[in-house]
Design a protein that fits this description.
Blueprint (H helix, E strand, L loop, with lengths): L2 H18 L6 H23 L16 H20 L15 H21 L8 E4 L2 E4 H25 L10
Antiparallel strand pairs: 1-2
Length: about 170
């Protein structure tokens, strides 16, 4: 995408998000929530689209399988949103070991629900509250942004896996 077009798209998405947000919702939280919903949809559509027999696929022996990547995304959501919300690190981190589509789709949906709770509880007043991110100080809003980045990073891995198996990724479907 050319830069002027990308800038126009980002501006339009931000303006649309700001105009569509419910009264009382912090604008930065609404923007991050919209971005989270975009990537969540792509990850979930990937989990549902890829044949279950490819969940064990690894491009090389040293990387996670496609199914493990989906589980890792769910585990990341649980951990990062837990840190952003209550600071709790005692969350479900077993999803990377799941192997069935049903289990992984359920894990993704449960992790999205956990993050939605944090989004709902994040306001202008507490968005800049400091949270501990393994010894580094971060804000609640920063953790939610980091979680979005984490999901995008691994969706990029999933796209590569799908392309190697001649599957059109959800983000490229017309």
């Amino acid at each position: 995408m050319q830069r002027p077009m990308a800038l126009a798209l980002c501006t339009a998405l931000t303006a649309t998000t700001l105009n569509a947000q419910p009264a009382g919702v912090a604008p930065h939280v609404a923007i991050l929530k919209t971005q989270a919903e975009t990537i969540r949809t792509l990850v979930l559509r990937t989990a549902e689209k890829v044949p279950e027999n490819l969940y064990e696929f690894k491009p090389t022996p040293d990387v996670r399988s496609l199914g493990a990547l989906l589980g890792h995304i769910a585990d990341g959501n649980n951990l990062l949103c837990g840190l952003a919300g209550t600071g709790n690190t005692n969350v479900d981190q077993s999803n990377e070991k799941k192997t069935t589509r049903a289990d992984l789709v359920a894990a993704l949906k449960a992790s999205y629900a956990a993050c939605d709770k944090v989004f709902a509880e994040t306001t202008d007043a507490n968005a800049t509250t400091a949270v501990d991110f393994f010894g580094q100080k971060q804000t609640r809003l920063g953790m939610l942004a980091f979680n979005n980045s984490h999901m995008w990073e691994h969706y990029g891995n999933l796209v590569t896996y799908m392309r190697l198996k001649n599957i059109v990724p959800p983000s490229s479907e017309r």
